[in-house]
Design brief:
Elements: H1 6-15, E1 22-26, H2 27-40, E2 46-54, E3 57-65, H3 73-92, E4 99-105, H4 114-124, E5 131-135, E6 147-152, H5 154-162, H6 167-173, E7 181-184, E8 186-189, H7 192-201, H8 209-214, H9 220-274, H10 299-334
Parallel strand pairs: 1-3, 1-8, 4-5
Antiparallel strand pairs: 2-3, 2-4, 5-6, 6-7
């Protein structure tokens, strides 16, 4: 057998690394994320995820919150120092201090933004596989553990690095708005001691308070907020469409000007040939009408479409649950 160095083994393992299939997160990390996000709601907060990347499983074993950000550069520098100091303290007490991503809170699932994509790309420079865990505190009142683990798709990162989101390029790659993010299944894991302790805390009652909370049919504020966000997104999408309509009008006007200029130049060249003179070139790059008009990026409209789909899904889900509760209540009253 040919002897291999440790670095050669690592590079080969990274080259054939299996795709990420599941995010396994410790119960303690879940509780820390929920506590941090709920304490500061509705202010959006973020934090660091710590753990280990093992094959097709990304293990999240711990986390810590980031201080509230500000635009001041001095405070930004203090935030970076805080992160480094926290990592050092965790290393000293033998806690996992490998960064595997970050978590952040959201309001009604409105997290599909350019800022999230830029953060992903910054993390990708140092961490090959990282995830962002999204938690929505507003859904907790509906009895839902609104945790999502997201990553950017490889096809999207390739397009983003190229900075080309024109219609022709997107059609060539067969890329749609649904291909930006990939949702990774989350598996909550606890140690045997924690599981035994939770079993001891369970009551013998067949129905808990959480079961009663799920039967509440008063979800009007949640639906109203979703409708408000949805209307705003539709307005934003309409503005993006107006940009493309303006672009196509300018493009059509430019093409008409080019054709008129070419027709005039050809007529002039016919006259010059008749006079025995050299014809003028039919292309003039210095002419402003031949300067290509840049096509607007479709990234923003794709992100808004993602948000519209998310709000519609939430409205559909909550409305369906409400109908089920109403039918159940009606049957109980009849009995």
């Amino acid at each position: 057998a040919v002897a291999r160095s440790f670095l050669q083994a690592i590079s080969k393992d990274e080259a054939v690394a299996p795709p990420l299939r599941v995010v396994q997160i410790e119960g303690l990390a879940v509780l820390k994320i929920i506590k941090h996000c709920k304490e500061f709601a509705p202010t959006l907060v973020t934090g660091q995820l710590l753990g280990l990347d093992v094959g097709s499983v990304l293990e999240v074993t711990n986390c810590f919150p980031f201080p509230v950000r500000d635009d001041d550069e001095e405070i930004e520098a203090d935030g970076a120092n805080y992160q480094l100091e926290m990592m050092r303290c965790l290393r000293e007490v033998n806690v996992d201090n490998n960064t595997v991503g970050w978590y952040q809170s959201t309001v009604l699932g409105s997290y599909q933004t350019v800022e999230l994509i830029e953060t992903f790309m910054n993390y990708q420079e140092n961490i090959k596989r990282c995830v962002c865990i999204i938690y929505d505190p507003s859904k907790a009142d509906l009895g839902v553990l609104a945790l999502k683990a997201l990553k950017l798709s490889d096809s999207f990162m390739e397009l983003y690095r190229a900075g080309n989101f024109t219609g022709e390029k997107l059609r060539e790659k067969n890329f749609s708005w649904m291909d930006i993010f990939e949702e990774i299944p989350i598996k909550v894991s606890n140690s045997a001691l924690v599981s035994a302790f939770m079993t001891e805390l369970e009551t013998d009652a067949p129905v808990s308070q959480g079961d009663y909370d799920r039967l509440q049919s008063s979800t009007t504020p949640f639906l109203e907020n979703n409708m408000e966000f949805l209307i705003k997104c539709m307005d934003d999408l309409s503005m993006e469409q107006q940009k493309f309509q303006y672009y196509y009008r300018n493009l059509s006007r430019q093409q008409a000007q080019q054709q008129a200029w070419l027709q005039k130049r050809r007529t002039e060249n016919m006259a010059r040939r008749s006079a025995g003179e050299e014809p003028l070139p039919e292309e003039d790059p210095s002419n402003p009408i031949f300067k290509p008009i840049p096509e607007p990026s479709r990234l923003e409209s794709f992100l808004i479409t993602n948000q519209v789909s998310n709000f519609c899904g939430q409205i559909n889900g909550v409305a369906g649950q409400n109908f089920s509760r109403l039918y159940l209540t009606k049957a109980l009253h009849e009995n």
